[in-house]
Amino acid sequence: MFFSPDTLPRLLLPYIRDRKSLYGHDLSQGLRDPTLPDQGKKKVIVEFSSPNVATDFDGNHLRSTFLGAFVANIYEAMGWEVVRLNYLGDWGKQIGLLSAGYEKFSSDEKLQNGGINHLLEIYAKIEELFRPEQDAREKAKQDKQNTADIEGKGIFAQRDSIVKSLEDGDEAALALWQRFRDITIDELNLGYGRLGVKFDEYWGESEVKPKTIVEVEDTLKEKGVLEESDGSWMVDFVKHAGKKGLGTQIVRGRDGSTRYLLRDIAGALDRSRKFEFDKMIYVVSSRQDNYFQQLFTSLELMGLSDLKQKLQHVNFGSIQGLKGSLLSNILNQCAIGIHDALREEHGDSDIDSDGVGSISDMSLVSGLLAQDMSGRRGHSYTFDPKKIASSSSHTGLVLQACHRVLNASIDKLNTSDVEAAEVDYTALSDDDSADLLRLMAQFPDVVAATYKSLEPHTLLSYLYKVVSSLSILGEGEDEEFEGEGDEGGPSEACEKPSLEEKKAQLFLYQNAQQVLENGMRLLGFPVAS
């Protein structure tokens, strides 16, 4: 369809103004039946972030947090009922190992005073102490020797005994586990708050129902899929599914403890019964591609193809250049890097030297998100504060700067006289205004394409085009768009615009701001009020 420069603003701008924050959204996509809205919305569970209790929050967890929040936002914009779920690794052998470390190196008083940092210290110590036993087991495996004797003593035995106590419901073991979990969640919420990320549910491996685990095992045995091997129970995907790349996977160890795959199969069943979802999306690193194929194939082998069809793994590449630590520490590390890069970029020696306090969380999150979403999510990348701080390329800081300048321009134009005037749409018939209007008209299609692909770079690239178009428009009308908000004025050679023409320019900027904000919010960018 082609619109003349005179017609497009008359049609588009009132429409955007009427839709406001809903412009670009298509709520009908999430309806069970678009022809019968009373039948309600479809429900999607988005599982993301998913760190482990009392261990490092690494770059993969950070990227899962960014992308998972985006996926939840885009589904909500399409009318789905969204449940944001953080599935904590709060069970299994790492908790047994942490508890063993607590028995050796800690006490109630030390845990109370030291909090999450003390837990990380305990885990690091017990891991170092445990390493020789692990090396001995690996050597035995390479020599094709039985590892049962090695795993039946020392820290191996202590760890596995604690795991068994937890699964048997031992009160003392569970009380200590609960303290570990609560300390971890309290710390995580501090970091999530800085990112502007919220969860509707905190789930954990611990919450998988024992009766569901038994149900899964019984079904796998009935189907002839679960086989015993050297005291363990496993699934051979090559034999039963004909998928050579999937290999075999143990679901219950020889010590009687459950493994990840068994708990995740049971977890999918539990969630389907609790939430009655239409779709569940796991936002997890591509390093787990093979594992999720095992999970989905297991459901097929159980005769649960209908459930399997509702599940999707949204994967992503890794981030290099970030040291695993607490989420808050990672954010501080990034803030310092961006701070130093900004000083180098602008040569400003007056910037606060501490690095952290001088970078607002808004700038920090915008910079990190823009770098994360600058390419396809399947691509890995290296955290580079110099790219984030650059003013000569597309960055989150440039996006935020454009938003500030746009606000300043709107405030300057928005006088009582202009507000009372009629809109002269012919003032927007120039080529630069027409180009911006065409871009604004494309926004719903861009959002729809982003929803289909779940590739945030599609939407981010579009927003950069809007910023560029606004900058070009500003060069012709006002110097404001050339900098960080310095006030300029119309050229003396230009005829002073009428109130009606100013009203048209105000109307254009207000609606362009709405488009920019809608896109930023979908991606997870903080937006200044």
From TrEMBL:
Gene3D superfamilies: HUPs (3.40.50.620), Isoleucyl-tRNA Synthetase, Domain 1 (1.10.730.10). Residues 477-489 have a biased composition (Acidic residues). It comes from Cylindrodendrum hubeiense. This is arginine--tRNA ligase. Keywords: Aminoacyl-tRNA synthetase, ATP-binding, Ligase, Nucleotide-binding, Protein biosynthesis. Belongs to the class-I aminoacyl-tRNA synthetase family. Residues 477-496 are annotated as: Disordered. Transmembrane segments: none annotated. It catalyses: tRNA(Arg) + L-arginine + ATP = L-arginyl-tRNA(Arg) + AMP + diphosphate.
